[in-house]
Design brief:
By secondary structure, the protein is of the alpha+beta class. Helix content is 27%, strand content 28%. It contains ten helices and 18 strands. The strands form four sheets. It has a six-stranded mixed β-sheet with strand order 7-8-6-5-16-15, with no helix packed on it. The protein has a six-stranded mixed β-sheet with strand order 9-10-11-12-14-13. The N terminus is likely disordered.
Length: 426
């Protein structure tokens, strides 16, 4: 043990300390006088490492005050009380090697005991489900709602959302590139109104992990529609967005005119498109049983096999103007169709779409390769001598055999294995 004061005239990074005799250690430093009457005190100069040993001994004896306040202050001013920092990865390599050795022992496998399991190449892959949350919103100008709308999509966990009345035009391309709806996990595509007037417009906002492209755009007399195709593994989904402007001084079309045009235009989509979802703002009060034109429209949609899934009001005045349709008896299925409060006069619609993956079956086909086929060489090889005594049946058989040999020589057969989707079209 050590005690005493530091002489400030000493060398830098060193201190003058007095070594305590064995008698002092037995009695305890706290009760020792500064001058030992026996006369065994001696003055020594200690370096940094030796002074650090003092700190190690003090750790286990908190009741002993080894150094005076002046000594401690002097040591701190010289910055010799700090230990060298060890790296954060100290011992990491040893622990890693030990862990890997234990892991190798756990997964020690005798590969001689393994056998090969044959897999049937013509096996039928079972169809799997895929759930998507889809949304529909009449935004009435998306520019002033972009940040709020993106936050709403995240909170509602919506994967794909169709927007009507975006009020965008051809001058909005730069805004589309810089908007929050087109970055950080989301993408946005728009379709403007054809006549260039203010209002209208359809867009789709979706998470960027989906592969969506626009395949069709229609500007009809009574409505505007856009068709997108969502491609996933072993399946796809066709999404059709609809916007029918409400009746006004500039829009004098009737529900009957829209019904005729809509049903006629929809025939090809129903026949050729599997996994079809139609949604949008139709501005038709299908909940009003006293509205003859609206009920006639409902009967026509049911007649061509469309099922409407929104069963609550979607407008602040209490009518069902926004609809979601799918084909009866086919994929996809719509579940949990609900509405949410929104900052326009329409409500947000949120629904779960369940898509069954198309059944995939591996098929084998055989064809001949005619890339290097030489007709003259084929004719020469096909010639053969035939006997007058042979019957007609024997000559035909001999000709078939010779022809097959020549075909295998000049255009050999090639076997291919392909995947084929089994689709059900209503």
């Amino acid at each position: 043990m050590y005690f005493s004061n530091i002489n400030k005239s000493d060398q830098p990074n060193s201190a003058s300390v007095t070594r305590a005799t064995p008698q002092h250690r037995l009695a305890g430093i706290a009760h020792c006088s500064k001058q030992d009457q026996v006369g065994h005190n001696s003055k020594h100069v200690y370096g940094r490492e030796q002074l650090l040993e003092v700190g190690n001994m003090v750790k286990h004896r908190k009741d002993l005050k080894i150094l005076s306040v002046d000594v401690v202050s002097r040591i701190r001013s010289l910055k010799i009380q700090r230990r060298r920092k060890r790296g954060k990865r100290a011992g990491y390599e040893q622990r890693r090697r030990k862990m890997m050795a234990e892991f190798e022992q756990l997964r020690n496998v005798n590969h001689n005991n393994l056998i090969s399991i044959g897999v049937d190449k013509d096996r039928h892959i079972k169809s799997q489900s895929n759930n998507i949350v889809i949304g529909l919103a009449n935004v009435q100008s998306i520019k002033n709602k972009a940040i709020w709308f993106k936050q709403m999509l995240i909170e509602e966990e919506i994967d794909i959302c169709v927007l009507t009345e975006t009020w965008l035009n051809d001058n909005s391309d730069q805004w589309i590139e810089s908007t929050e709806l087109n970055k950080e996990g989301f993408k946005m595509e728009k379709s403007n109104r054809a006549d260039g007037r203010k209002g209208g417009g359809i867009a789709i906002v979706y998470r960027d992990n989906y592969n969506i492209k626009q395949v069709e755009e229609k500007h009809m007399t009574t409505y505007h529609s856009v068709k997108w195709k969502l491609t996933m593994k072993n399946t796809h989904l066709h999404v059709v967005g609809i916007y029918r402007p409400p009746p006004s001084d500039t829009n004098v079309t009737t529900i009957t005119q829209f019904t005729d045009e809509f049903i006629e235009s929809l025939q090809d989509d129903i026949i050729n498109s599997a996994n079809l979802v139609i949604l949008g703002d139709f501005n038709i009060h299908i909940d009003d049983k006293d509205n003859g034109d609206a009920q006639s429209y409902v009967e026509c949609t049911e007649a061509i096999g469309l099922e409407q899934h929104v069963d609550c009001y979607t407008h602040k005045k209490g009518h069902t103007l926004d609809h979601i349709y799918t084909l009866v008896g086919s994929e996809p299925t719509v579940q949990n169709c609900q509405t949410r409060d929104f900052i326009s006069d329409h409500r947000l619609i949120r629904a779960d779409i369940n898509i069954q993956r198309n059944d995939i079956k591996r098929c084998t086909s055989t064809s001949r390769c005619y890339k290097n086929f030489q007709l003259d060489n084929f004719k020469n090889d096909l010639m053969f001598d035939w006997s007058e005594e042979s019957t007609l049946q024997e000559l035909v058989q001999e000709y078939k055999s010779k022809a097959e040999q020549c075909m295998n020589k000049h255009a050999p057969e090639v076997t291919k294995s392909d995947k084929k989707e089994n689709r059900v079209v209503v």
